[in-house]
Fold:
Amino acid sequence: MAVTEAERDAMRRALALASKGPRGLNPQVGAVILSPAGDVLAEGWHRGAGTAHAEVDALSQLGPGEASGATAVVTLEPCNHTGRTGPCAQALIDAGIARVVYATGDPGDVSSGGADRLRAAGVEVVAGEQADASRRLIGDWLTVQQLGRPHVTVKWAQSLDGRAAASDGTSQWITGPDARTDVHRRRADADAIVVGTGTVLADDPALTARDGDSLYPHQPIPVVVGSRPTPADAAVHRHPRTPLFYDTRDLTTVLADLRDRGVQRVFVEGGPTLSSAFIAAGFGDTVLAYIAPVLLGGERLALTDIGVASIGDALRLQIEQWMPLGPDLLAIAHPATESAAGEEGS
Structure:
C-alpha cells in the first residue's frame, strides 16, 4: 500500500515530536492524526512513564467523532497491552481511525500485536515508513527489549603493544587530547559510566563528561562495581549525579538493576579487570579501543582473562570503523557474526 506525501510529511513531524520525549524505560514515540484530505487534525508524543501514549495524547485533542475516517501516523507500532494505560490499538479503533501508518514494529512480547489487532478490526495498516529513522531514535530502547538489558560499550586505551599502563601503574596519558575529547563526547551520550573499585582507588576519576573546561549538559550516572570501599573524599562523590555502588561481581544483576532504573546505554571504562569481566560475560556489544603509538612492555595488559584458552576460542570482532584521532587510532567494533568470524579465520 502506497504512502502519500502528506503521510511522509506527517511521519517526519511525528519523529520530531517523539524526540521531545524523555529517554528511559519507555520509548520515545510521536503521532500525527490526518484528516481524509491529508490535513493535520492533531499531534502528540509520549512524555514518560505513566503518561498518555503518543496516539492517545493526539486523540485527546479531538472531540467525539472528529477522528472518524482519519489516518494515524505513528513512529512505533501501536501497543496492544494494558499497563499504566490502555492499548493504543484499541483506542485508535474506538476513535474510528480508518488507516494507520507506522515506522517500526514493537518487539515486546507483551506490547506487540497492535497491527494485527487493527487489521482484525478493519483498519488499513501500513508498516515501515521511515523505519530506519525511527530505529535510530529508539535504538537503545529496542536493544533493551531484545536483550533484556542495556546496550554495553566497553572502552579502553592502550599502547601499541596492548598495555593499559606502565610497569609502575601510571597510565595518564597513554592517548592524546583528541582521543580524550572523543571519550568525553561518548560519555555524554551514555546513561551510565561504569568503573571498578580498583580504578577509583588508583586514579580517583571524576567520571564526568567534560566539554573542555565545562560539563556537558547531560551527565552519565557514575557506577562503581566492586567490594572494596570507596573513600568518602573520592571525586566520584562530587559528581553532579548521585553515584551507584554495587558490592557484587554479578554483572547480570548490575545490568538488570540499571535497566530497571531506565538506563539504556552503559559505558564501561574499566579498568582491565572489570572490562575483561564484561567481555567474558558476553556483555561487550560495542568495543572502543583507543590505540596510541607508544610501547610500554610489561604485564599491565588492557584486557586480562576473558575465557579464551586457545585460538579456536578467540572472541572475534567486526570492525565498524577505524577513526584517526590526532596521533592515535580508535577501533570501533562489535562481536562478529558466525559468518564473518568464519571468513576471518579462513
Notes: Residues 338-346 have pLDDT under 50 and may be disordered. Residues 131-147 form the longest helix (17 residues). The radius of gyration is 24 Å. The CA atoms of residues 26 and 49 lie 6 Å apart.
